[in-house]
Automatic annotation (TrEMBL):
The gene is gatA. The keyword Ribonucleoprotein does not apply. This is Glutamyl-tRNA(Gln) amidotransferase subunit A. Heterotrimer of A, B and C subunits. GO terms for cellular component: glutamyl-tRNA(Gln) amidotransferase complex. The active site is at 82 (charge relay system), 157 (charge relay system), 181 (acyl-ester intermediate). Allows the formation of correctly charged Gln-tRNA(Gln) through the transamidation of misacylated Glu-tRNA(Gln) in organisms which lack glutaminyl-tRNA synthetase. The reaction takes place in the presence of glutamine and ATP through an activated gamma-phospho-Glu-tRNA(Gln).
Amino acid sequence: MTTDIYRADALELGRRIAAGEQSSVEITQAFLDQIDAVEPQVHAFLSVDHHGALEQAAAVDARRAAGEDLPSPLAGVPVAVKDLLCYRNLPTTAGSRILEGWRSPYDATVVRKMLEAGLVILGKTNLDEFACGGSTETSGFGPTRNPWDLDRIPGGSSGGSVAAIAAWEAPLAIGTDTGGSIRQPAAMTGTVGVKPTYGAVSRYGIIAMASSLDQCGPCARTVADAAALHEIIAGYDPADSTSLDVAVPAVLSAARNGDVSGMRIGVVTELGGEGYAPGVEQRFAETLDLLAKAGAEIVEVSCPHFEQAMATYYLIMPSEMSSNLARYDAMRYGLRVGDDARHSAEQVMRATRGQGFGAEVKRRIILGTYALSAGYYDAYYGSAQKMRTLIARDVEAAFQQADVLVSPVAPTTAYRLGEKVDDPLAMYKGDLCTIPSNLAGLAAGSFPCGLDPNDGLPVGFQVMAPVLGDDRVYRVGAALERELRAQWGGPLLAKAPALAGSKLKGDSK
């Protein structure tokens, strides 16, 4: 029965709870048991709220028993939350020692919306420190491991969120995406991850990395589950000055439809070729064939300035990050080193930042501070903003030719832990395909499209849609999911060797 619970889709669990077939407490306990069993191997969570989660589950069961209508199709369903979102019940660390043990006095808007919708928060998931990284190796609390192969990265920075899903520790999770931090780890773990249109989901209460790029989004095992969570967390929030005061696109309806007949799918020529693993390109080409058979028209489009996207991103992102992280000064909250009469405030600040920030965060702060410095601002940050405009114009022109744009999510599959940790540029190249949509504020998603025939690891297919065209992302994702599940005989995660073997002992229940 336990396996039946934690392998079920989130919407199916919600249906069972609403129908009284299973209680939220029973379902929540099953996931807490799975967390206890596999966390020593995976390390997806930084904190787990056993007591609070069961209390929330019991409250949902009480409402149903009293004959009340449940507030959403996901009421009573457990969810994991990236530890970049403020949540009063648990510490919020951003994966950094500088915030170790800090508790927020308020909830992020996304957290509040999930609680109001009746979701049960299991705990906070691991991440690259302040979301700086693509492997979840820069976390101040140790790396997360990929449930497909425990010697490999799960991607990042939302690696804990997707690993929790892939290890059957949670049916849903929340991630954040600044340059691909939902989509790239989703691709590397065979899960679904969507970055909504910039401004479509409130950033209030989410610890900022790069404010013009950050976006929160859903992680799940199925397209419909991701869409259902998307509809709960999206919507206008007056507490966020970048929030869009528009209706939430009907993404769940689109995910249940999955009709791509007559849809023009644009293959971005700049996102492929040299540097892309042969197995990744093979699966991408096969996926295009599947979508064509489903009635889509495949066209080629060019976005020439995408070739400068990574350089543009790595000037804008660290510049905004250096400004945002200036608040961690040891004077107000968080870590404080050398606090005694012998040290000045400047010395305390220097010691705290030196000890509290990891190497990758320091690297980006230094780069961003330099790009914003007098005499260099126009040459670096100013030029990057101009290039960002050109990238947005490329996208606008491409959407005149196609309804959505597609590419691989990442040039390679998951690499081994430690393989690139000392080579930042090699790690940065993992975001080549995902960065453009953040720079242009687009909606984009990653969907499993099979296994690399050379290493047997998951490959992701990226779908990008215009601003507020999030429903198109889900339509294509649903069509792909339907076609591929017919071939696979079920979800891709069922093929994960680490899950099927003895490495993850919790799966043997």
